[in-house]
């Protein structure tokens, strides 16, 4: 009997703590006049940064959080702080970060959705963020193990962050898949084709037009004019996973690098290939593969095998990728292995020296994981 009473008391205390925490969190949410939740398959971190920068320039005191390549908390003055974690990422960190924002006088938050599993996406939106404006950047097949293998499945998963009785900003293409989940939500499409080309110029780094269009639409809904928003966006730092285009001289060759390592699904990779490469380019693919993403490796190998490449350099889980490439018809003389444990960039240059051509374009794709910051900095001309 005493033991049972002990457990009842412990359970009661636990529930009381949860109740008080939830009450305090809802109070903190109530002190934020604008809450924005950014979800989607690709571009979430970049769109989060662009929205925050536009609102910041429009005099909003905005705190932003990205969870992509490098999880960052972005303060109202634009300074950034790496989010330190003990162990794997946990969605409950949003409670602490929202408290930090409110304690520092924030009136606006722009948070990137950090959940992949549909039920956790729903919890993030309905319990932790309760957004006024939701953003879904795009709907593409990714994380098939938890989100499904079709666009319909992925749309259903992403729909869990659509704000109830709020506003959803998305692309016209994604709107077609998401409309049926928006019965009490106003859907506002953001079409980059309706914007002048000048809106995508003047950035110190590469931007995706769709991302800029979405960010501008959100800023417009928040009462910020386009000129003010764009001025702020052009001052924003790019995300660590942002596409980089750079050039350098090495091995007596002019090397152009298109780093799209963060875009690790085939649809996004193909879009970037078509966007950045010209027919006359002598292309070398640098494919970094993860051992736990063999399905994705197979998809990318199939994609590149059909492209007019001069060589493919494989890093990471190379054995599986090489076998897949050979099965897809890529000849042995076009396949090179990159050792990344030590002197990775030197090893890359040694391979480049063996490949014919005075001007080469390296298309770096697959995944960032496993490549050091030093390697990526040198790859991008740093």
Automatic annotation (TrEMBL):
Domain (Mur ligase central) ranges:
38-149
Q: Which GO terms describe its molecular function?
A: acid-amino acid ligase activity; ATP binding
The name this protein carries in UniProt is Capsule biosynthesis protein CapB
Cellular component (GO) terms are: membrane
Q: Which GO biological-process labels does this protein carry?
A: capsule polysaccharide biosynthetic process
SUPFAM superfamilies hit by this protein: MurD-like peptide ligases, catalytic domain
Species of origin:
bioreactor metagenome
User: What PANTHER family does this protein map onto?
Assistant: PGA SYNTHASE CAPB (PTHR43445:SF1), UDP-N-ACETYLMURAMATE--L-ALANINE LIGASE-RELATED (PTHR43445)
UniProt xrefs under InterPro entries: Capsule_biosynth_CapB, Mur-like_cat_sf, Mur_ligase_cen, MurCDEF_pg_biosynth
**Pfam families tied to this protein:** Mur_ligase_M
């Amino acid at each position: 009997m005493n033991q049972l009473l002990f457990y009842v008391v412990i359970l009661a205390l636990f529930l009381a703590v949860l109740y008080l925490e939830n009450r305090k969190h809802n109070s903190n949410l109530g002190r934020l006049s604008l809450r924005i939740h950014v979800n989607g398959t690709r571009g979430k971190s970049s769109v989060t940064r662009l929205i925050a920068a536009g609102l910041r320039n429009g005099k909003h005191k905005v705190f932003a959080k990205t969870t992509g390549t490098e999880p960052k908390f972005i303060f109202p003055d634009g300074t950034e702080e790496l989010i330190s974690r003990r162990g794997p990422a946990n969605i409950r960190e949003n409670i602490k970060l929202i408290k930090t924002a409110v304690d520092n006088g924030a009136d606006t938050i722009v948070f990137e959705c950090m959940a992949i599993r549909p039920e956790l996406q729903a919890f993030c939106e309905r319990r932790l963020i309760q957004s006024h404006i939701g953003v879904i950047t795009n709907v593409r097949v990714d994380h098939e193990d938890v989100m499904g293998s079709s666009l319909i499945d992925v749309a259903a998963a992403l729909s869990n962050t659509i704000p109830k009785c709020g506003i959803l900003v998305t692309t016209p293409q994604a709107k077609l898949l998401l409309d049926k989940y928006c019965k009490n939500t106003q859907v506002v499409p953001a079409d980059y084709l309706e914007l002048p080309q000048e809106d995508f110029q003047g950035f110190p780094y590469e931007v995706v037009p769709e991302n800029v269009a979405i960010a501008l639409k959100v800023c417009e809904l928040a009462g910020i004019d386009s000129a003010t928003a764009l001025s702020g966006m052009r001052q924003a730092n790019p995300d660590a996973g942002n596409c980089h285009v750079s050039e350098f001289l090495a091995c007596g060759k002019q090397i152009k690098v298109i780093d799209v390592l963060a875009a690790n699904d085939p649809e996004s990779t193909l879009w970037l290939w078509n966007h950045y490469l010209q027919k006359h380019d002598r292309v070398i693919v640098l494919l970094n593969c993860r051992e736990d993403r063999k399905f994705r490796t197979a998809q990318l190998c199939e994609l590149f095998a059909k492209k007019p490449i001069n060589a493919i350099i494989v890093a990471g889980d190379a054995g599986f990728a090489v076998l897949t490439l050979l099965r897809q018809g890529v000849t042995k003389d076009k396949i090179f292995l990159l050792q990344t444990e030590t002197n990775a960039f030197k090893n890359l240059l040694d391979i480049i020296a063996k490949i014919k051509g005075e001007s080469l374009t390296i298309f770096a794709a697959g995944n960032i994981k496993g490549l050091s910051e030093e390697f990526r900095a040198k790859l991008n001309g740093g």
